[in-house]
Amino acid sequence: MEYHKKIHHSAAYIQEKLGKIQDGTVAFITGTGLGGLAEAIENPIAIPYEAINEFPVSTVKSHAGQFIYGTIDGVPVIALQGRFHLYEGFSAQEATHNIRVLGEIGVKTLILTNAVGALNPSFETGSPMLIEDHINLTGHTPLRGENVDAWGDRFPDMCAVYDPTLRALAVDKALELGIRLERGVFMQVMGPNMETPAETRMYRRMGADAIGMSTCMEAIAAHHMGIRVLGISCLTNKNLPDCMKDAPLDEVIAQAEKSSAAMTKLIRAVLKEIPGLTE
């Protein structure tokens, strides 16, 4: 089946279950260990990924694999508990199937969260980092292949993938809440192996402040569809090439869960202000 038809099938199933989503609905994707944000959703309607026509199913143990619709503090939201990674064997298009579906059902604002390693030695582990820009070092793009003109231009401009207004709002809310918010460039690599010391030095010299195995594919696809993107990372560990330490998944998840309270607090504060930005 053609790619865009699979997207339409998934979107049609969701719309059949939920009806037309409210204007101003904000979607967010919860990364490793950050699924707790979905617990703040009021009157949730949850649909397992495996129940949605043509929808991929995540294989990562910390990803619940649910599409949840409801409200947070009166703001209509969609939470995607679980994402799809290139290292799982998904193509770039499959890894952004969820993003295309969000665009098809009318979502205009997307918040991407992830758990990442800090490359910038001045960054504090456990703090959130505002993604100001990214480096896609995977060698893949969800825009490869035939362009669907209804979604966006064949050659989309990428000078402001992460919406400046949303970024400024996140900075303001972090200051109000007294949350230390790092700001930097995120790099996506293929994974699933972690970085060697030599690779860590190279990535830092290339301009990356944090590194992970997701997000860039999603941001590219969303930007292509005209969806405003805000990216916030949880810095779960620090990659220092001269004193590298193991970063097992269990420890990454534990740190992300420990830090999720500040992330949740910040994102809820941002959510309250987003409707006013779109009026």
Overall form: globular
Under the CATH scheme, which class? Alpha Beta
Structural class, judged by helices and strands? alpha/beta
What is the CATH topology?
Rossmann fold
Rg calculated over all Cα atoms: 18 Å
Number of helices: 7
pLDDT averaged over residues: 90
Query: Architecture in CATH?
Result: 3-Layer(aba) Sandwich
Spans where pLDDT lies below 50 across 5 or more residues:
none
Helix content: 25-40%
Strand content of the residues, in percent?
A: 15-25%
CATH homologous superfamily heading: Nucleoside phosphorylase domain
Number of strands: 9
Q: Main sheet: which strands, in order across?
A: 5-8-7-6-9
Q: What is the N-to-C succession of helices and strands?
A: HEEEEHHEEHEHEHEH
Please tell me the total number of domains: 1
Defining key terms:
279 residues, alpha/beta, Rossmann fold, five-stranded mixed β-barrel, 7 helices, transferase, glycosyltransferase, Purine nucleoside phosphorylase
List strands and helices in order, with pairings.
Elements: H1 3-18, E1 26-30, E2 42-48, E3 66-72, E4 75-81, H2 92-95, H3 97-104, E5 109-118, E6 128-136, H4 164-177, E7 182-188, H5 197-205, E8 210-212, H6 216-224, E9 228-238, H7 249-278
Parallel strand pairs: 1-4, 1-5, 5-9, 6-7, 7-8
Antiparallel strand pairs: 2-3, 3-4, 5-8, 6-9
Pathway: Purine metabolism; purine nucleoside salvage
Function: The purine nucleoside phosphorylases catalyze the phosphorolytic breakdown of the N-glycosidic bond in the beta-(deoxy)ribonucleoside molecules, with the formation of the corresponding free purine bases and pentose-1-phosphate.
Protein name: Purine nucleoside phosphorylase
